[in-house]
Specification:
By secondary structure, the protein is an alpha/beta fold. It has a single domain (42-249), classed as Ethanolamine ammonia-lyase light chain (EutC) (Rossmann fold, 3-Layer(aba) Sandwich). 38% of the residues lie in helices and 16% in strands. The chain has eight helices and six strands, in the order H-H-E-H-H-E-H-E-H-E-E-E-H-H. It has a six-stranded mixed β-sheet, sandwiched between helices.
């Protein structure tokens, strides 16, 4: 059983000390649990994301959900699915005819957003020649908030990059959710998800390849969700520079 440790971060063959776990295994468990809790409560560094996107030549807008703080967000999932009144009004001025909109939301792991959203987004945009809306950065947001954002913007497709619920071995997992013709009331069955985007999971190149395939097929077939199947094959993407290739290669 101990050989399984070479193939998985899961806790296997931990041993025992009397009727309890060995001290080392217990301390490692407590550390992993603390990291997962910290990821849930870590605030989204909005200004840092704005600057990072601007440095990459990507326009953005900062928004907030109807949840007034993190505590309310965690207790009231419904508030994280819709925009605050001020944010909706702010977004209305940007309405246009966009082929796609990208949303970055903290979800349940701002850590995942900080680490992975911009490199993944940059790779996606470098391989798209679509009319793209300014990237919406949302505090206290859940997946469904992308539906309202895209409806207000007038976008045909939305891709929400969001921090997934942390696990004891994955506090920084990023998820990407695609929806065709987004509007409030869309169900999870009408979305496609690419998950576990992180260094120890799905690489940026593999995730971007899957998402680009899904976006193009969604536009062609005019649908998303359970009726849209992902069969992207091996990834072949354009990368901007040697620095980017090194960064993406490490993930």
């Amino acid at each position: 059983m101990a050989r399984l440790r070479d193939y998985t971060p899961a806790r296997v063959e931990l041993g025992r000390s009397g009727s309890s776990l060995p001290t080392r295994a217990m301390l490692e468990f407590q550390l992993a649990h603390a990291r997962a809790r910290d990821a849930v409560h870590l605030p989204l560094a909005v200004n840092s994301l704005v600057v990072e996107l601007k440095q990459k030549g990507i326009d953005s807008i900062t928004l907030a959900s109807a949840a007034r703080n993190r505590d309310e967000y965690l207790k009231r999932p419904d508030l994280g699915r819709r925009l605050s009144a001020d944010s909706r009004q702010q977004l209305t001025a940007l309405r246009g005819e966009y082929e796609a909109a990208f949303v970055i939301a903290d979800g349940l792991s701002a850590l995942a957003v900080h680490r992975h959203s911009v490199p993944l987004l940059r790779l996606l945009l470098h391989n798209l020649d679509w009319r793209i809306a300014p990237v919406a950065i949302v505090e206290q947001g859940r997946v469904a908030i992308g539906d309202e954002i895209s409806e207000v913007l007038g976008a045909r497709i939305v891709v929400v990059l969001i921090g997934e619920r942390p696990g004891l071995s994955s506090p920084d997992s990023l998820g990407a959710y695609l929806t065709w013709q987004p509007r409030p009331g869309r169900t999870d069955a009408e979305r496609n998800c690419v998950s576990n985007i992180r260094a120890e999971g799905l690489s940026y190149v593999a995730a971007a390849h899957k998402l680009l395939f899904l976006m193009n097929e969604s536009r062609r077939l005019k649908l998303s969700g359970v009726r849209l199947k992902e069969d992207a094959g091996a990834p072949v993407l354009a990368v901007e520079s040697i620095i980017d290739r090194k960064l993406i290669g490490e993930h």
